[in-house]
Amino acid sequence: MWEKVPGEETYYLHVFHKKQPDLNWENPALREEIYAMINWWLAKGIAGFRIDAITFIKKDQDFSPLPPDGIDGLVSVKSKARNRPGIELFLNELKQKTFKKFSCVTVGEAPGVPLEEYERFIGPEGYFDMIFDFHAADIDVENGSEWFRECDWSVKAFRETLFASQLAFTRAGWGTTFIENHDQPRALSKLVRDADYQNEIGATALAAMYFFMHGTPFIYQGQELGMKNFCRSEISEFNDISSLDNYDRSLAEGFSAEEAMGFVNRRSRDNSRTPFPWSDGGQRGV
């Protein structure tokens, strides 16, 4: 979205929150500043980088309008700003001028990359050592940013999606495995739909499932405790901007307030951002 700069007749683009202006990667001087910063840290001896939302750095330069895809009259920025042609020039330059000079590990958060392009990202000449695959992570919704468009997924479909990603990783190089992160609800609540098994039994099954797959497993904070979603009764209890937006979008799309709260409670990123449930019991309650 374009945001007006206060007191000026200029605007800036932000794919995410308005407090996160997008950098103009078309500017060579800006890219060199980024590379200098990365090299400064690598020279200090850090082990590597997790590169967030890296597939959003290239935007189509025609800035042409698109028809709205929602009742709010807006259109998703993804078709113009995610994994767009020309991004390979930026990513290859990034690798050549930074990561390749050091013994480090790189993990790219790369939504929107088709399985057939994995070799370009993590192959022998790939941009990163690993990337995060989101095909299975968003199996419960049509896309990761519109939670009210839920999918009635099955275990069979989940398995087939995982297998397809695993084969793509195996053909291309090395990958990652994960079932939780800061943008996802708790896996125990999302993937284990029978409440009787949303406990150590279900948590152990999920851990065994993805720890025995091809790739480096990533554990998100609280996952080791088997934490579940935290149900809220009012939208005012949410802090996550995506939760607030999805609630408003759900109402605009014709869903009731109760249905909108259901979407947000099931999918909110705030579910993975709650405090650890410490207590004064044995092992601090764990």
UniProtKB/TrEMBL annotation:
Domain of life assignment: Bacteria
SUPFAM superfamilies: (Trans)glycosidases
One MF annotation (Gene Ontology) recorded for this entry: alpha-amylase activity
Name this protein carries in UniProt: Oligo-1,6-glucosidase
Stored SMART domains: Aamy (SM00642)
BP term (GO), one: oligosaccharide catabolic process
Domain Glycosyl hydrolase family 13 catalytic residues, every copy: 1-273
InterPro entries according to UniProt: GH, GH13_cat_dom, O16G_dom_2
Region annotated Disordered, chain positions: 266-286
Coiled-coil residues: none
